[in-house]
Each structure stands twice: as C-alpha cells, then as structure tokens.
Amino acid sequence: MTGPVHVSIADLAAGAAGAPLLGPDGAVRDPLVFVDLAGMPGDAAIVADAVRQARESDRILIGTARGGQPPLELVQALDLTLGTSEAGRETVDVADPEERVRALHDAVTSHPQAALMLRDVLRTTGELPVPAALDVESYAYSTLLGGEEFRRWLAARGPRPGPPETTEPVLVARDGGRLRITLNRPERRNAYGRQVRDALVDALEVALLDGGIGRVTLDGAGPAFCSGGDLGEFGTAPDLATAHLVRTRGGAGRLVHRLGSRLEVRVHGTCVGAGVELPALAARVTARPDATFRLPEVSMGLIPGAGGTVGVPRRIGRWRALYLALTGEALDAETAHAWGLVDGLTGP
C-alpha cells in the first residue's frame, strides 16, 4: 500500500488527479488525492482549471489548508478541506492535519469501493428531491451489499444470533393532538432491526393519516436513542432488489421527511447509523448533552443506508458528511449543534 498522494493546485490544474482510476485488473488506483492549498498560484486561469479538474475527477479530493484563504470556488469543488480554522461547512477544523491525512488515507484505501461510492452519491443527490435521493442512496447501498468489501466484513464478524422477539418494540402514546413515539429496545440500545423498523413505520403512518395529530415526537427508551442497524440482520435479505425495496418503501426515512414540521426527534446517548440518519431527515432535532453521533458504514464496506447521504448533507454539507462517514468517529453534541446536525441542546 502506497502512502498518501499530495499534489499542488497547479498539479491539479494540469490533470494530476485525472489518470484512469482503475488498473488493468479492475483494481482501484490511488482513490484519494490530497491537494495542498497553502501556496496559491497568482494566475486565475490555473485556479479555474483546478476547479474544473476537481469537478470532473473520479477520485476523492481533500484539500489541506495551512493559513491563507483559498478560493471558495475551489474549496467547494473539492470533497473536503482540512484546516486549522473553520471557514465554512466545506472545511473541518483539525488540530493535527498530518494525523488526519493518515487516518483518512487509511480509511479510503481500506475500503475504496465504499468510499468512492459514498463520494459519488453525495455529489449526485444534493439537488434531487428527497425521495429520489433516497432511491439513489439505496441503489448504491445494494450494489455494495454484493461487493467484496462487505463480504470481507461479514466474514470477519462471523455468525451472530438474531435479535429476540419482543411484543412492544415501539411505544405509542397519544394526548389529544400530540403523538409520542418511543423506540423500545433499551436492552439493545434501540437497534434499528426489522421489528423496530416495522413498528416505527406503522406509528409514523398513523401520524401521517390522522389529520388530528398536529405534533409528533420521536425518542428512545433507555441509555441511547438508537445504536443503528441490528448487526445480526446484516446480509440476511433474500436478494439485493428486495433489500432496496425494503429500505425505501418499507423504511422510515420517507415518512420522517413527509411529516415535515410536525415531527421533532429528541436524541440522547449513542446515536449510530440509522440513529443519526433518520433524525437528520426530520424538520427539528434536539439532543441532550450526552449525545454522540457516528456513521460507521464505510468500515463495513457500505455507505449510510437509512437516509444518511440525504439528510445529513442537507444539514451540514456534503463535505462534513463525507468526513463523518469516512472517519467513522463520534461527533459530540456541542459540535453537532454548531454544525447544524441538531437544532438545539436540551437539559440532561
């Protein structure tokens, strides 16, 4: 495995990131390129060519900025910029840029197919209506379910028992025009498995069909809002087409979006995978100070598949969404609020 590839803006403008992505054997070559934004060329034509090359490149392009102010058009054309002072949602402030370069390089080169597909989905769906964007996300997710990177993760994980059946995976309580929906698998940190998903969909459909319900709140019982998909169910769909239809037509993402301003999601504790993705599709999200947010799917050879490539970038931008998904690291509640992933912080 080679080390990180670094190019200058002039190199980028000259086509340094434009070589064929695939080798003769179909393997991905250099999926990630870092662009040094420190030394700005004085020629505006070079910058314009760099912007064009960035938009057309098949690779993930991450800028590294150490002082100065690179042109906004170029920063926006890249997939992410690492900096020591935040200038906007295209940039992530990092204390040690070199350490972040190594971490991102390792993440992408370990799972290049998932990382590249994530980048392409984020660049494709930003202007699409939410239902269409959810479909694109799911097409990509189903593709990766059939890929070698996900098979490798499944093999390393080994057999895992499915979740035990429960009688009330979701609690629903109505008080006049208000409906409260509570994920109710606290012993599994409200993992988003089949039972929880189906019961949540039923409750959300009730809220949509009943015009007398003016306000809906969604929260979770126990120490965490939702720890993401139930790992025991990963890879158990009968086929990839069925998996797509279950995710999109049988999942909660579309319904959360359709409820619009009527729905508020209140999160706390661990929010992983679907526990981040579904709230991000809601009109309002509040978090307790102990909440953390994490998107680990790329490390499994997948991309977020419950709406994360749709709701998260609409809140924080595709650049920071890429950063969260590539690193798989937890984001604290205060930073999530500053970025706009949540709309407000509540008391403990």
Automatic annotation (TrEMBL):
SUPFAM superfamilies: ClpP/crotonase (SSF52096). It comes from the Bacteria. It holds the Pfam family ECH_1. InterPro entries: ClpP/crotonase-like_dom_sf, Enoyl-CoA_hydra/iso. Belongs to the enoyl-CoA hydratase/isomerase family. This is Enoyl-CoA hydratase/isomerase family protein. It comes from Actinomadura fibrosa.
